[in-house]
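On to our target:
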Amino acid sequence: MKPGRPRTADGDAFRFRADRPSLDLCSTLLWRHEQPRELLTRPDDVARWLTEAGLCTTPFAVTTDDLVSARVLREAVYRLITARLRDAELPTTDVDTVNTAAAHPDRAPQITPDGRPHWISHRPVAEALAAVARDCIDLLTGPASGRLRECAAPDCAFLFVDTSRPGTRRWCATNRCGNREHVRQHRSRQSEPRSST
């Protein structure tokens, strides 16, 4: 983690390891399978996440409704991705949630008096969440769909796109979850009674 990186109210920094905004949004709920830890607890957390994700660059206000919308979208994205991973039918309510969010208009292009492009945003949070929803749609329907993965560590729920050449990546980060799992397996083997020959 970079020194001086903004943290949530609980002291956690956001994690941007997936290189996809929809998957990175899913990472705002840590330890999902064990003891979930919510990183989006206040509207300011959403503002900070959208800014750090590069989805909003100008000052903007985030409401409590925006906080709820971000969390609802995050959970819909997570359920859709994990349904795809299980080859299950996509939940209709989650499809509707993502499609509704994706339908928000994008920023509007404008031209400045000196002939340069300028983009204006009337609803920056809804527009940023629309970009997240569109990314989810692209992941589920595009070429990355067959490369979606969930970290194989039992206590990690990190989602990622496997960009390895053979397509066999198992861990969100080998130096984190992969190493922990290898240590766990090693300790398990060491604790097994050895048979005498």
Notes: The radius of gyration is 20 Å. The chain has one domain: 21-190. Confidence is low (pLDDT under 50) at residues 1-5.
